[in-house]
Amino acid sequence: MAMPAILQRMRDAISPPSTKQAILGLFQDAESAANAGDALKGAGVPDTDYDFLTDSPYPEGSLGEREEKHRLYLYPFIGALLGLSSGIMITAMSQVAYPLVTGGKPVLSLPPMAIVCYEGTMLGAILFTVIGIVFESRLPKFQLGIYDNRITQGFLGLRVKAEPEQRYEVIEIMNSAGAVEVKTDE
Hints:
By secondary structure, the protein is α+β, with helices and mostly antiparallel strands. It has five helices and four strands, in the order H-E-H-E-H-H-E-H-E. About 45% of the residues lie in helices and about 10% in strands. It has a four-stranded antiparallel beta sheet.
């Protein structure tokens, strides 16, 4: 299940730009930004087409945004399984390829194999966790979109990707909700 999501994100990053236009509304307080988000939802703008930008940490859902789904927990498990299987393969194959029989002991000795398998498991889990963080953070982001530096000074931004026919309606919703300024990508 994780692989198709990764491939879809890669396709989205490489795909040609859509016909949607980016609109950024700047708000001085969280309440007016949340009201604009509720009005956009009421106007039929899908919640995947708008996002809140802020320099302050707000609790999830406090601005009315969608709950982000992630699959970060799968990456370490997949990495650990691949690391464990690699450790087992490396140790078992090398002991079978170069057998060293001493005093009637078994060719496959488990204590040394356990150490290599443990290290392989940890290495796989750590590497896949780092890869998972990069993918789940939606990095690299090739198209940054519209932005305003005042967001780092305490303003809240509401970035919307709207169809051309919805553009004026979205601008009107932001202005009526109390936007200080509304910018477009044109």
